[in-house]
């Protein structure tokens, strides 16, 4: 070998968002002038710069280059020891490539973001907001969630109350708010509350929301019922007091005149002529069918009888019903995607791809149907033009459907926002649902499944970033 190398120091430490420099020394132990090229390899290569990138040395001389590390303050900068290496390739003797190795310790940092979805819920007896907790640090996050309000007017059912979130991931905590007193009559009342994300050794992160409690009976309805009952009682009393005594004197006058009041005996009447037997019987009117857009189809009102009937649309429910007929005891999930500028894709099932990959065409809506899972429910997370934190939101509540029935999330309107992701689950105790999503600029994400036994009874497919979008999905049960 015609090269000697040394890293000074061999191990270094750096904070995410900062930088540190290691000096790489090398000596030309050969007998010819040589030029050396430097290239970083390993997981730290995107954040590493070698200056200068090439070095020319005479035989027996020594030189050095600076290796600078600048990991970002993101979950990608994994906390703890991270090995790295620098490949040194001699120009004159490329076969004598040397790869000195070192170790860079990245310090841990924590950053948590929490958001209520939606921030305001309404109800008479309960409200069901969700708390989205994002781990933006580079270490696993362990936290508990609790609720409080002024005046102790609400009770809180939080599930799960403890979460563990990997770096760069998010967890959804379902909360049920119940007022301790029912408002029977009157106007609605706003009850502010706070959900706190508590971690060991730091102050709790509070997220404020509002529960709008409606009265059991609106004030106008109570007034209407009171007036109606008063009028009804008044009418009954007047009827009883002033009921007229009607008596006809016609019969008495007839008796006085000696005229019988018995009805006359019936006489034979001529039979009506029958209709001609050669008159054709008119055919029954065609029964109209209701299309997906709510318009009536079929014969009627002077329409042409020889028009062709349009074939029914093949939805996710159509596909899953066919699978259920072939495999009555199995579990299946079918789905299709509404692609921007292209419309609905063909329905696919059990892990096949719905949508497009690499064509930069976002999804607008998703149609899902299941069999053998006691139904399914889901919700769409879409682009939020009014976001202040660069993330989307859930504009609509969860929607669900029983086995064999179509469930739709998102919107197919012309100006509908792009889908960033969606939550999905299946009926309680009926197994798990797994998903993987293809996100613009991020590619296919890892396979994720819900785990009802540990409290995670739904899974989230996609991203939270307003600048990205969902391009394709794969679902299995």
UniProtKB/TrEMBL annotation:
The keyword Transmembrane helix applies. SMART domains: ChW. It comes from the Bacteria. GO terms for molecular function: hydrolase activity. The chain crosses the membrane at residues 220-242. Residues 258-318 are annotated as: Disordered. Keywords: Hydrolase, Membrane, Transmembrane, Transmembrane helix. Signal peptide: none annotated. Residues 268-277 have a biased composition (Low complexity). The keyword Hydrolase applies. This is Hydrolase.
